[in-house]
Amino acid sequence: MSAESFSKKWEEQPKGLKGALRPHEPLRPKINHAVNRVEVQIRRLESYIDGYTRRDASLFEKIVQAYQKNDTSRVSILSNELTEIRRHKNILMQNKLALDNIAIRLRTVFEFGNYVTAASPIIGILKNVRTDVSSILPEVGNELGNIVILFGFKIVIAISKSFLRIFKSSSTFFL
pLDDT tens, 7-48? Predict the structure, then answer.
């Protein structure tokens, strides 16, 4: 798959009969939508974590007061509740970190897709210039070839294929 065909799948909907029979949204909005959905869940987890933090402080204060009054049964009950709240809070924090990681990876994929889309015309122009110039000035043609390689054309194409395979296999996540 060339960078140009990746760009089409990244930004454009299929046209013609194929687009009418099997319509699908381009990859760019799908990934953007997924990032937004993950970030909404991260904010929800943050609000729950904040609630647990407030409840933790409140219970701790009540435990201190009960301990000062030598109310051991109340201290025991409140301590058990505080333990559960801290356990739940830790679980939420671990899952928030996992969602943060997912959001970062999705944003990376999004940015990489934008990079491939922006770079594909440049690579095409460099290749055309290289073929035109190399018959007259072979050393310039070779240097332009090196620039294309330096630009990461082969890496971009290989990664683009990998991303497309990933998104095709997990396309239900982005619906």
Answer: 666 666 666 666 556 667 778 888 899 999 999 999 999 999
Over its C-alpha atoms, the chain yields an Rg (Å, rounded) of: 27
pLDDT in tens, 119-132: 777 777 888 888 88
Burial class from Cβ neighbours inside 10 Å (0-12, 13-18, 19+) for residue 87 reads: exposed
Q: How far apart are the C-alpha atoms of 165 and 173, rounded to whole Å?
A: 14
Nearest residue to 26 via CA among 1, 51, 5, 52: 5
| Torsion on CA atoms 80, 82, 88, 93, rounded to nearest 10 | -150
**In sequence order, which residues have a C-beta less than 8 Å from that of residue 25 and are 6 or more positions away?**
13
Report how far apart the first and last C-alpha atoms of the chain are (Å, whole number): 24
pTM for the structure as a whole: 0.68
- Compute CA distances 1 → 42, 122, 159, 163, whole Å: 35, 17, 10, 11
The full set of domain ranges for the chain reads 3-174
Are 71 and 153 in contact, with CB atoms under 8 Å apart? no
Phi, psi dihedrals of residue 12, rounded to the nearest 5°: -115, 150
